[in-house]
Amino acid sequence: MFQTFVFSCLCLLYLTGAFCVEIYETHTISAMEGDSVILHTDVTDLQRDNVLLWTFGPQDAHIAKINRVHNEMFHNGADGRFRDRLELDSQTGSLTITNVSTELNGLYKVEIVIENKVSSKNFIVKVYAHLPIPVITRYCPQNPPSSVSRYELLCSVVNVSRVTLSWYKENSLLSSINVSDISSSVSLHLEVEYQDNNTYSCVLNNPISNQTQHPDITHLCQIHSDGEIRDLIQ
Fold first, then answer.
1. According to the UniProt entry, where is the signal peptide (predicted)?
2. Which of 100, 142, 146, 150 is nearest to 125 (CA)?
3. Nearest-angstrom CA–CA distance, 60 and 161
4. Residues 29, 190: Cα–Cα separation, whole Å
5. Which sign does the torsion angle of CA 73, 78, 81, 83 carry?
6. Do the Cβ atoms of 222 and 230 come closer than 8 Å?
7. What is the pLDDT of residues 189-206, one digit of tens each?
8. Are 154 and 213 in contact, with CB atoms under 8 Å apart?
9. What is the rounded distance in angstroms from the CA atom of residue 109 to the CA atom of residue 54?
C-alpha cells in the first residue's frame, strides 16, 4: 500500500466565531483488490465534546460518524457498497475499509471538531485489480522463403484497465502501450531475429504490481515432415 500527502492550514471566520481549519489537500493511498486500507485521522484520543464525520464521493455521502456529545457512534455505507467493510476506531476515529474493490475508488473526507478547531483530512483511494499473466503467441509465415530471418511475437492481455503493456530486450524498453480506466483487451507486437540470443520479456504493470512473461526464442518455427509450419511456443 502506497501513500502520499500534502498539508496546509487556513483560518476561517464563521458567524459563530473563528475556526482554524487544517486541510490535508492530497493524501493518496493505492491498494490491491482484497487488501485492507486504513485511513488515519492522526488523533490519539477523541474527547467527549469531539465530533467526527467520514464522507465518500463527490456527493459527500455519510459513511461513518462519532458524536460523543450525544453518545452516538455509527457507521454504514452509501448505496450498500460498504456493507460489512467498515471498521471505525472509537478512540481515534480512524477508518478501516476491508476487502477493498475497484468500486471503492474515490475521495474520502474526514472532519473532526475539537473545541474551536475543525480538522479536515482528504484521502484519494485507488484500488487496482490483480493482474493476469500476459499470453505470448508466435506467428510464423506460412510459406517462408529461405531469406526470412524474423518472426513475430504477440503479447496479449484481456479485461484490464489502468495498466501498461511493454516489451523489453534485456533491461531496455522496446515498446509499450497504455490502457485507460476503461476495461479492455490489448496486444503488442514484436519482431525477433531467428538467431537472436537476447532475453525478451513482456511486462504488464500498474503503479503497484506487475506480471512478466518470457518467450522461449530458442525454439524456432520449424518445417515438419508433413510440410506444416508450427508455432512451438506453449
1. 1-20
2. 100
3. 26
4. 35
5. positive
6. yes
7. 998 877 777 889 999 999
8. no
9. 6
